[in-house]
Amino acid sequence: MGVRNQTLVVEFVFLGFSGFPNSQLYLFLSFLAIYLLTLLGNLMIFILIQLDSSLHTPMYYFLSHLSCLDICTSSVTVPKILVNFLFKQQTISYNQCLTQLFFLGSFTGTEGALLGVMAFDRYAAICKPLHYSHLMNSEVCTILAFATWIWGFLNATLHTVLSTKLSFCGVNQIHHIFCDVPPLVGIACNDVHINEVAIRIASFFVGGVPFLFTMLSYCFILSSILKIRSTAGKRKSFSTCASHLIVVIIYFGNAVLNYNRPSAGYSLETDTLISTMYCIITPIVNPLIYSLRNKEVNGALKKVVRSQRDFRHHHHTIN
Question: FRET label pair with 303: which of 45, 62, 209, 264, CA 20 to 30 Å apart?
């Protein structure tokens, strides 16, 4: 007997936006604008890092991976939401749901680990400056970056396999706006003890460990910064960490709210807001933080714009 027959469910219905029946067009335009800005912002940062040799450093190498992850995370959820708004039916097939769950778990799991790696990079740069080039050489950076991707995919594989064992007994309404592990476990009618244990374990290893590692790194970083005598030196050292620290707080704060719900759960409206913040707003916030606060990224952008303007001027002069 196939998985689909065991569940007695061939599609799920999202209830997240059911409280806004007359706002579908407004929501469609809002989410479309957010998605396009997410793609544009993250793509801009990724391309700038590839084009400008001054950004070919470990910090920006990891930032380029973060930009890719934000594009991927947003692309897993938003296009389906847009299609559902367009056709005024908040549904997803069983197979599409598991696919969405897998890739969402992969990219969010990878991002948590990557933020931990980025914290280690800042620790090495500030606390071990004489050994930095050895600690974070190109080979080490490549291994660390791809290890985070493998970590994310292993996490998602575990949850996806366990989710295929769930039975739904005809119940197909999900109190959410996309397919994720906790909402599916919440409507299952068979024993979900193993799934719940897996969620708790993953919350610790995929979310808790990178966060604690990041905070520990920043304790050492802060200690080193405070030992710097010049105010300018302190400000410069901290400015290289500020953007990353803001992203860490936003990402892990939303992750805690999303995956560690109170036993009574959230109201549908609150759950929808938290889900939107976690997987749709966070990917657009990251490039804004790094582009607005980062002089090197701003400098690279101005350099690219200037070179394009010079090229057009030169081309116009020749013609």
Answer: 62
Name the 3-class secondary structure at 244.
helix
Asked if 45 and 124 touch (Cβ cutoff 8 Å), the reply is no
pTM, entire model? 0.87
DSSP-assigned letter for residue 57: S
Query: CA-to-CA distance for 116 and 248, rounded, in angstroms?
Result: 9
Token pair of 200 as six digits = 């708790």
The answer to whether 137 and 145 are in contact (CB under 8 A) is no
**Model pLDDT for residues 82-135, shown as the tens digit of each residue:** 999 988 889 999 999 999 999 999 999 999 999 999 999 999 999 998 999 999
Classified by CATH at the fold level, domain 8-318 comes out as: Rhopdopsin 7-helix transmembrane proteins (1.20.1070)
Query: Where in the chain are the domains?
Result: 8-318
Q: Is 92 helix (H, G, I), strand (E, B) or coil?
A: strand
Considering Cα of 64, then 74, then 153, then 193, what sign does the dihedral take?
positive
Choose among 125, 109, 128: nearest CA to 61.
Answer: 125
Q: How far apart, in whole angstroms, are the C-alpha atoms of residue 109 and residue 307?
A: 38
- Rounded CA separation 141/145 (Å): 6
pLDDT digits (tens, 9 = 90+) for 38-67: 999 999 889 988 988 888 899 999 999 999
Q: Nearest to residue 100, comparing CAs of 184, 175, 220, 26?
A: 184
Q: 12 has which bridge partners?
A: 92
Helix ranges restricted to H, the chain: 3-7, 24-51, 58-87, 94-127, 132-135, 138-163, 181-187, 193-202, 209-227, 231-259, 268-276, 282-293, 295-318
Q: Which of 80-83's residues contact partners 24+ apart within 8 Å by CB, and which partners?
A: 80/178, 81/31, 81/177, 81/178, 82/28, 82/31, 82/32, 82/35
